[in-house]
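BACKBONE STRUCTURE TOKENS:
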Amino acid sequence: MAFDPHRDVSVASGAFRVDVNELCAAHTLLSHQRALFIGPARFALGAALTQAEMASTLAPTGSARLVRAIIVAMGALEHLASGIDSLMWKLQDTALTYGDAEASASLWEVVPGSPMGPPVGPGGLARWVLAPGIAWSSATTALFHAAQDTSSRAGVPPLASVLLPGDAHLAAVCDLLSVAQDGAAFAFHTDHASGARFQRDLGRFAFDVGSLPKNPGITPFLAGRGVSQGSSPTSTRAASGVAAVAVASAVALGFRHGRSYGVAVRGADERAHVHPGGAAASLPPGVFAARTRATLEAMPQAAPDTHYTGVATSADTIEHITTMSGGDADNGEIAIEEHVTAHQDGTTTRSWTVDIRGTQSFMVGESGPQDSLTNLQGVAAMPSDQLDAIKEAMRAAGIGPGEAVEFAGHSQGGIMAAQLAADPQVRADYNVVSVLTAGSPTATVAPRDVPVLAYENSGDIVPGCDGEATRGDNVTTVMFRDYAAATHPEDPVPSSHSAPLYVDEIRTTLNAAKASSDPGLSALAAAEARRTQALGLTDNTHTTIHHYQTRRITEK
């Protein structure tokens, strides 16, 4: 099938406004018209075809012409139905993605045929009635959401929860159940818009929790540990921070590999770089040194340097991340690309791309720092061993203070990339010019003054784990609609989160952008050109990729 930018991808760059109510109304009208006209027309044509075929013995010539005409009409009807379905998918995806743009859009949650409500048909209506509750609970929840939005816009987010505590509890339960349904839809890929739905419903649940009155004792306690409430009421930043503190406490008590005392980094040259954690101060120097030696001895050898020549596109960069193979639950891997560009006057300039892998273990407290504890800390904008490991690898690579640096990552790697680019100390030490992410929830940590090129898939729930959309004049978001994505043969990650799948989508879209005048694709082409120019990449650029192994220094 030929690439269709209006069907396959959308690009949003800079500030924009979306009338969600208009999108919901259009979707609802199409849903009801499809149910009212397409089905009966299909039935009528089928009956007519049967009658025409039965009459063939009486009038063979005329009947044959009539049969052909009916078959043509049935084909045209199916083409129309397919076009309506495609348009409905677009409207649903857009409305779900930008559903937090307007408070009044909450009321569409109870309208059958709306992208925010149940689909028209027996299955959708049955789900609306039976799960997450009976019809009245869905209606009550939607009305509470509208009141919640109104109180938030008035500057008193807790007001609706205080005045309507019973409705607040019901809404929280329904929203949590909806999040679980979205997760199941992603796992089994039964919902074409599972990612957008997950972000909407998870954001709603975060809003429910965040609207509760602040505990004067707990809030300062959490703030002292780096947990703070995000500026958006739908942000999962605070909830991720609470979970991170709880998980870190369990790990410190001996869960899995026990307390972390820092992180060790080693390159292909076998030189070790150690970043002591805060807990290292509690150990006698000899004990810490012994644990560090044991950690380094357990680490595998880093991969040797690799080389390539020319310009690495954003697709190439994400592909470089997918080809890294030295990470697992026990060890992390970071690659740093050193770009050296030769100019006509004989001079050279140097720039860098820091390639960061995604989650290597969905457990917590692993010796490898690319685990789920890092995920929670990253979304909460908290310090982590993975951040320390990346910084040590950058120092080991010898990045100069004025040399352009790009942070790139898939999944968790994208969280780390955005968090590093927003870190004031990193910005003071390095010349950060670009952030590149694929399948990453970055809204809670994205920098405000560094160009960000973010690739997301509407069927991927991972980018929705921040509960809100990444916004800003510096952000270019490319949204794919790969509804039929299955497990990629080169990557066991299910459904639409597969890194190789992202590479395929990015490469196809970039190729289309080169030859298209579509405004969205033009914005993507401009963003790609900006990162290429900022890094100074040309056909005369020679790149060396340095690989680094990382590992936590733990009790066990």
